[in-house]
Specification:
Elements lengths: L1 E4 L4 H13 L4 E5 L19 E5 L5 H11 L3 E4 L6 H6 L2 H24 L2 H6 L1 E7 L24 H20 L3 E6 L1 E3 L8 H10 L4 E4 L5 E6 H14 L5 E4 L4 E3 H15 L12 E4 L14 H7 L7 H14 L1 H7 L2 H11 L5
Parallel strand pairs: 1-2, 1-4, 2-3, 4-5, 5-6, 6-10, 7-9, 8-12
Antiparallel strand pairs: 9-11
The chain binds nicotinamide-adenine-dinucleotide (NAD) and 2'deoxy-thymidine-5'-diphospho-alpha-D-glucose.
């Protein structure tokens, strides 16, 4: 079996669902269930003996050590993190605690467990750390995309905390020989994405008749990958990645934010037109920019493609259509994640921020 951390969040839950759709290998899913963790996403696995959910913190060494000793996973895939840049600007502490201190404790528990394994199991064991392209900083308009050798230049408390965790993972390989793999992926989108992030926020706000808040001039560029393609890349790296190596994951899909927002609006115009016949784009509202906002990210995924033969299955067009359709088809999931805590966040982040 494998141990997945953060498997009730957006990417982790998609990974667990896809894994169990393709394998019978069981998953222990350790998640703290912060505001971003949602067991409803995993509802289809209720009663499935291949999925063991454990409510807990990656930083709880006693719990993690017990889980490792009891279940003897052949791999750990670490998704658990605080993941939202704007939240890291309002309050960095949780990011330091989970992304840095939590990852450190997890690595310590895993190192002790790995050291206790018999030869062949020790040989086969893997620790895969899921990271982000944001650790590389911001690109200029004409700069080449990030390769794995790009220097680390994180600019937000979130990306700095992820960079620190990447360094710890690297150090545990070089110092202790821990068999690690790291993936640095670009922006994901798809089903079960918490509506604090750009694409789900735009869909949810548009349908609710609310403003669509675009930061600054809306010309910041992100490189978008459908979440299930990220999951297939992680499976491939876990299966065949070279120990200690870093693999950048991306689908060559750079787009300015305003283009993304307009595309979402156009799909909604087609699939769920406004009652008054007006376009959803009329709801776009430019608001104050994010402090220290990175201008451009772009991933060079040639290493992953050439070495491991990975390719995304979706284009942006097919992926964004599936995503909008998923949100239209799952209003209950959306309504349930929009809890009191969610409303409090939206009030804090967007109050009085019109540009
Ligand atoms: P998310 O915020 O949706 O989910 C994070 C999950 O981790 C939640 O279920 C949460 O409850 C859990 N968690 C948080 N702190 C924990 C702790 N201390 N112990 C155990 N569980 C904890 O995040 P996501 O978007 O699914 O991102 C998953 C990982 O992928 C993160 O490491 C993130 O940095 C990375 N990543 C995300 C993207 C993206 O576009 N979303 C892109 C590249 C990399
Ligand atoms: O690049 C990978 C990263 O992508 C991940 O590591 C992060 O966990 C993930 O949250 C994401 O970070 P971003 O900051 O790029 O994603 P977000 O959806 O918050 O914002 C995408 C872009 O849209 C960014 O340029 C900010 C802008 N934006 C965002 C929001 C929430 C807006 O213009 N308006 C908004 O309301």
């Amino acid at each position: 079996m494998i141990l997945v951390t953060g498997g009730a969040g957006f990417i982790g839950a998609n990974f667990v669902l896809d894994w169990l759709a393709q394998h019978d290998e069981p998953v222990i899913n350790l998640d703290k269930l912060t505001y971003a963790g949602n067991l409803e996403t995993l509802a289809s696995l209720q009663g499935d003996a291949r999925h063991l959910f454990v409510h807990g913190d990656i930083g709880d060494a006693a719990l993690v050590s017990r889980l490792l000793a009891e279940h003897k996973p052949r791999a750990v895939v670490n998704f658990a993190a605080e993941s939202h840049v704007d939240r890291s600007i309002h309050g960095p502490e949780d990011f330091i605690q989970t992304n840095i201190v939590g990852t450190f404790h997890l690595l310590e528990s895993v190192r002790a467990y790995w050291g206790s394994l018999p030869g062949d199991e020790r040989e086969a064991f893997r620790f895969l750390h899921v990271s982000t392209d944001e650790v590389y900083g911001s690109l200029g308009k004409d700069d080449p995309a990030f390769t794995e050798n790009h220097r680390y230049e994180p600019n937000s408390p979130y990306s700095a905390s992820k960079a620190a965790s990447d360094h710890l993972v690297r150090a545990y390989h070089h110092t202790y020989g821990l068999p690690v793999l790291t993936t640095n992926c670009s922006n994901n989108y798809g089903p079960y994405h918490f509506p604090e992030k750009l694409i789900p926020l735009m869909i949810v706000n548009a349908l609710a008749g609310k403003a669509l808040p675009v930061y600054g001039d809306g010309m910041q560029i992100r490189d978008w990958l459908y979440v299930k393609d990220h999951c297939s890349a992680i499976r491939r790296v876990l299966e065949a990645g070279r120990l200690g190596e870093v693999y950048n994951v991306g689908g060559w899909n750079e787009k300015p934010n305003i283009e993304i927002v307009n595309r979402v609006c156009a799909l909604l115009d087609e699939l769920r037109p406004r009652a008054d016949g007006q376009p959803y784009a009329a709801q776009i509202s430019y608001v104050t920019d994010r402090p220290g906002h990175d201008r451009r990210y772009a991933i060079d995924a040639r290493k992953l493609e050439a070495e491991l033969g990975w390719k995304p299955a979706e284009t942006f067009e097919t992926g964004i259509r599936k995503t909008v359709q998923w949100y239209l088809g799952n209003p209950d999931w959306v309504a349930h994640v929009q809890s009191g805590a969610y409303r409090e966040w939206v009030g804090k982040q967007y109050s009085g921020s019109a540009a």
